[in-house]
Amino acid sequence: MAADHPSGARSHTLTRRRLLELSAGVLASTFPWLRYRARSKPDVLFLVVDDLNDWTGCLGGHPQARTPNIDRLASQGVLFRSAHCAAPTCNPSRTSVMTGIPAAVHGLFGNGISFRRHLPNAVTLPQHFMRNGYRAIGCGKIFHSVVDEPSWHEYFLPDVRWPDPRPNNGISPRFDWGPEGRGPLETTDGQLVTWARKKLQEPRRQQPLFLAVGFNHPHLPWFAPWDFLAQFPPEQTQLPAVRDDDLDDIPPAGRELALLTADEHQRILERGLWHQAVAAYLACGHYVDWLLGEVLRAFERRRQDGAVVVLWSDHGFHLGQKQHWKKWTLWHESTRVPVIFSAPGRVDPGQRCDRPVTMTAIGATLAELCGLAGRWGQVPSFSRLLADPRDPGSPPAAIALHKHRALCADNWRYILYRDGGEELYDLARDPLEWVNLASSSEHHDVKARLAKQLPRVRVTSGGTWDDDR
Ligand SMILES: [Ca+2]
Q1: What's the pLDDT tens digit per position in 221-275?
Q2: Phi-psi region of 343 (alpha: psi -120 to 50; beta: other; left: phi over 0)
Q3: CB distance 162 to 221 below 8 Å
Q4: How many domains does the chain have?
Q5: Which is the most buried residue in 248, 290, 346, 401, by most CB within 10 A?
Q6: Which of 298, 317, 280, 364 is nearest to 97 (CA)?
């Protein structure tokens, strides 16, 4: 009766704990996927790509997208098929992911203002990991245009290398594409792979690792090493499906956003460059997928030990849909992005989640998945969707573009512009968002329900969304 005697009870407890440790060790050596239990805090690989829309194999946004490494990662975890950026432009979107603050609340919409100047007291996601005992290191583009030293123990910025002279396509140096003469590991992004590999080859430390790698591709200009570009001959490249009258049922504020890039669209049409542009974007998507694959390969051993991989893109991209190029709209081309969580032993592989999620909640979800102490961010995590991708309790995805707002909920996209103009799309019947149902009386109730859930946008000094366009 050990429990009746104080010293006996202690010895009983110690024995039981030791037995648990021993059986965990035996189990871990027998079943490697159980090893994650041995390390309470898993290593994290935080992968970021720039301007990658849903043109991946696993999201199916373009039939010729070639992204085998992203697709494989998706098959090893949960792929969110309705994940949306907090704001369809770089600085606000990244600020939301990295601080856990919705764009409507942080109000930073300009690309020309450092998030740290705007939110001096923000605790970033890597800072939260550091406070929980992690070593946080990063490279490339994670925040917009700043490294943010308090967020990292170590950070690497590559030499910026672009082909010269430009433009290669005769349009403009920024809206340009073509072959990159350097080898795939010698480009700006290629250097990140080399650095990340080196870091992963260093002797492992006691501290768990948070490694962030932020690639620039497929951001403009679209230059990829020739081997990648050659796989996408423009004459065999399919253009995105478009409707010539698509803008006719869109309110003035929406048309204004669409036509922000009317000059570029006109030049593309006049010079017959649409196929070339689509091919170059696909080639850059394929190239960044290859780079991601190289980093994932270097991380593989840690993954076998239960490490977590998260992949996201800061926002999407138009390639002529609604006569628009680039981002800065509230349609799916701008807001829908790949988001993948892979965590062997923690998250079942091969899951697909169709519930809308906002990228603002990526960090809180990751922190919970890693068992960090303390709440982080201002939005609830979507951890329950990692366990059950059909969980109906998840909140809708809210998107803000300065004072224009959108909501993705169930199969609906609702847009409310600052002047009161509205759009409503039934995504089950009209996934390309061609038919605006906002003026149909039949949909009045749906619209009212969605409108109530729209976030309020704070008036701030964070610039307007187009100050650095
Ligand atoms: Ca339309």
Answers
A1: 999 999 999 999 999 999 999 999 999 999 999 999 999 999 999 999 999 999 9
A2: beta
A3: yes
A4: 2
A5: 401
A6: 364
- pLDDT tens digits, one per residue of 82-95: 999 999 999 999 99
Question: How are beta strands 135-140 and 209-214 bridged, if at all?
Answer: parallel
Centre of ligand 1 to C-alpha 109, Å, is 26
Q: Which residues surround ligand 1, an ion (CB under 5 A)?
A: 246, 249, 434
Q: Ligand 1: distance of its center to the CA of 62 in Å?
A: 20
Dihedral (C-alpha) 126, 132, 135, 139: value to the nearest 10 degrees? -10
Q: How far is ligand 1, taken at its centre, from the CA of residue 238, in Å?
A: 21
* Same domain for 6 and 109: no
**Ligand 1: centre distance to CA 437 (Å):** 9
**What span, in angstroms and rounded, lies between the C-alpha atoms of 258 and 236?**
27
- What pLDDT sits at residue 58? 98
Please tell me whether residues 26 and 163 are part of one structural domain.
Answer: no
44, part of any domain: yes
- CATH number (domain holding residue 372): 3.40.720.10
Q: Which of 395, 423, 443 is the last residue of a domain?
A: 395
Answer yes or no: do 161 and 223 share one domain: yes
Ligand 1 mean position, distance from CA 265 (Å): 17
Is residue 147 situated within a structural domain? yes
| Residues 23, 44 within the same domain | no
Ligand 1 center to 313 CA (angstroms) = 26
194 with 66, same domain: the answer is: yes
Spatial contact of 192 and 156, defined as CB atoms under 8 Å apart: yes
Residues 90 and 162 both lie in one domain: yes
More confident of the two residues 65 and 460: 65
What pTM value is reported for the model?
Answer: 0.90
* Domain encompassing residue 21: 1-30
Asked if 293 and 349 sit in the same domain, the reply is yes
Alpha carbon of 431 to ligand 1 centroid (Å): 12
Look at residue 72 and tell me if it is in a domain: yes
Q: Indicate the burial class of 63 (C-beta count within 10 angstroms; 0-12, 13-18, 19 or more).
A: exposed
Q: Is residue 140 domain-resident?
A: yes
CA of 54 to the centre of ligand 1 (A): 20
Distance 273 CA to ligand 1 centre (A): 24
Query: For residue 123, how far is its CA from the centre of ligand 1 (angstroms)?
Result: 41
**Are residues 13 and 91 located together in one domain of the fold?**
no
- CA-to-CA distance for 70 and 311, rounded, in angstroms? 8
